[in-house]
Amino acid sequence: MKAAARLSLVAFTMFMLVACGGGSSASDDDDGPAVDDEAAEALGRDTDATVLDDMIETQDRARAVEGVTLGHKQDLDQALEASAGDAADTEKE
Length: 93
Hints:
Oligomer: single chain
Helix content: over 70%
Mean pLDDT: 77
Order of helices and strands: HHH
Shape: rod-shaped
Strand content: under 5%
Radius of gyration: 31 Å
Low-confidence stretches: none
Largest sheet: none
């Protein structure tokens, strides 16, 4: 009985090692990681693909439109200053 238990334990262990072992797969392309690294560097980050990519992409898009938003803010500030200056001039008269 003990021999059968040991044999089944060894068989199960071997099965798990084979199942979890690193074999060759079709996703191991030579071009894949290089392209991903270039894309990450273009976005200004040096990380690999992670489960947080959706949030990182959201931050990248926010950074991309930040300049436009700041430009609109500066235009609005100038318009407010001009409006405040016109209102002060009319009160003095």
